[in-house]
Amino acid sequence: MIIFQDGVHAWRWDLGADGIFSVKSARLHIDRTTLPAINITVRWLKFLPRKVNVFLWRLLLNRLPTSWSLNARGVPLDNIMCPVCAVAPEQVSHLFFGCSLAMDLWENVRRWCQIHIPIFGTLEEVWEWIDVQQGFSNQKVVLEVLIGSLLWIIWTYRNATVFGDGSYRKYMLFDNLTMFSYNWYTSWNRKANRNWNQWLMNPTMN
Asked: Is residue 45 in a domain?
């Protein structure tokens, strides 16, 4: 804003208390006006690789570059539909919880673990559900690994579909889920007491 007064005219920076421009005051203003207010606790899962934890953190904050989010940020796209099922816009809630592929994988995990897993709409709902489980002490860790692996499998398959990587096949996804989750759980957990056959039968059994 420019204010004309008697005397010598000069520029004044209204975002700083002293009226002088500073990078810090500009940065704070940009953050306040462009970044959403987020009151979400970061959940770092020590039994999953760093890349998966970073992915889950971005998913929790709805910061994954889906077609829907890119379009909302002004990136021109010819198509914002889900690249996996093509029946709904590629929003995070759809891709990971409502897409036919995701729903099939979630159902496979329910049958594998032989427990009731609700239908979720967000990752925050997933963590809240895990936190209230009353199973043995290690069951929550196993569920975190399984679900983290499941969401990572969906994302990698989505990327393979978008970028034309023919190495991923739908029929391989659940096998990849069982293998990745077992390897990650046993590699990072020195107290892991399950062998491969026990994991295949039911990873949540004590």
From this structure: no
Shared domain check, 2 and 70:
no
Statement to judge: residues 196 and 126 lie in one domain:
yes
The answer to whether the beta carbons of residues 71 and 89 sit under 8 Å apart is no
Q: How many CA atoms lie within 13 A of 180 on its CB side?
A: 21
Max avg pLDDT among 38-47, 78-87, 164-173, 181-190:
78-87
Residue 118 and residue 174 in one domain = yes
Q: What is the DSSP string of 89-132?
A: B--HHIIIIISHHHHHHHHHHHHHHTS-----SSHHHHHHHHHT
pLDDT of 196 > 80? The answer is yes
Angstrom distance (rounded) from CA 172 to CA 186: 21
19 pLDDT more than 90? no
Q: What is the C-alpha to C-alpha distance for residues 68 and 74, in angstroms, rounded to an integer?
A: 10
Gap between the Cα atoms of 143 and 203, Å rounded: 9
Q: Give the pLDDT band of residue 169 (cuts 50, 70, 90).
A: confident
Question: How many residues does the structure list for the chain?
Answer: 206
User: DSSP 3-state assignment of 192?
Assistant: coil
Q: Number of folded domains in the chain?
A: 2
